[in-house]
Design brief:
The structure holds two protein chains of two kinds.
Chain A lengths: L1 H27 L10 E4 L10 E4 L9 E3 L1 H10 L3 E4 L3 H6 L1 E2 L3 E2 L9 H5 L6 E5 L7 H12 L3 E5 L2 H7 L4 E2 L3
Chain B lengths: L11 H17 L2 H27 L1 H9 L6 H24 L3 H24 L20 H25 L3
Helix pairs in contact in B: 2-3, 2-4, 2-6, 3-4, 4-5, 5-6
The chains are: A alpha/beta, B mainly alpha.
Amino acid sequence: MKSLSTLFKEILLLVLISGVIGIAAQAVLPNGIGLKTDLILVGNDSSQVAVPAIAINPRGDDTRAENITLAEAYLAHQDGAALFFDARSSEEYAEGHIQAAINLPVHAFMDSLAFLENLNFDSQIITYCDGADCNASIDLAADLKMMGFTRVVFFFGGWQEWQTAEYPVERGR
Amino acid sequence: MADGRNGKRPNILSSAVAEMLVQLKIFLNTRVGFILVQLLRIGLGLLFVYASLDKIWHPGLFAKAISNYRLLPLPLLQLSAIILPWLELTCGVALILNRYHRAANLLIASLLLIFILAILSAMARGLDFNCGCFGLSGEESNIGLWKIAQNMGLLLSSIILEFRFRDESQGA
């Protein structure tokens, strides 16, 4: 019985060590979160298969990205001040995308970290995906805000609205 | 301190299992068995260290990965995202260093069991998403039977290690 209680103490010790280091590490990690960090559910939760988009801001601000309209997106595009991020797959991107948009597939977000970390975190960023049927733009915006980008909005009308309006597009990778 | 098996009626299945366990114990005490145990111990340890790194660096994304399973309410979700990766790291390191290894191995087995149940429950509810097991990117690691099989394999390694570690701790 003695060895059992020793084992139990060791298990407790390992859990305790992990808990203390884990909580302490959140203050040091660039992307640390807290127990009170808001996890905001956005996106269409009514569909059973749809993955919920969650915006997590490590610094605890109100983090939900705003939606912008086609007109606003077009204005920003004309100014050339904003970065357009296409959240769709690279295949869809290659078939056609908003002119000068950068492909950042949301399902492979972690693969883009090296690229993102070199950007100015105060850059104006507009994410989009196919259109009203997809949540990838919202997911990507949430991921970017969570990463620390301060000026992120999503253009929910997306590729469909842009294409219909016959605004500048391009093909290829 | 008998095992309590004595009073039960013998049946073919349980005696076959018991025989297998005896054979396994004998094998684990051979030289080859010893090497296998060391390989399993270090391999499982390294795997858990590797699996923890991405999650430790991006607790927010890991919280999101957990939320995909739709099992935990909000405060528990953050707590898991904060502690779970570090628990994986601590247990992995403990296994590699061969310190507190039995406790670490039992924790790892419990985690694997929880992961398997979580994936199964998500599959039963028709959810389909990236499992968030070893990293937080890519489509190739969506939940599914292959993920279950992987985790089962790891759980089996963990159980084999427990047989060996229990004998060690009993001074065999």
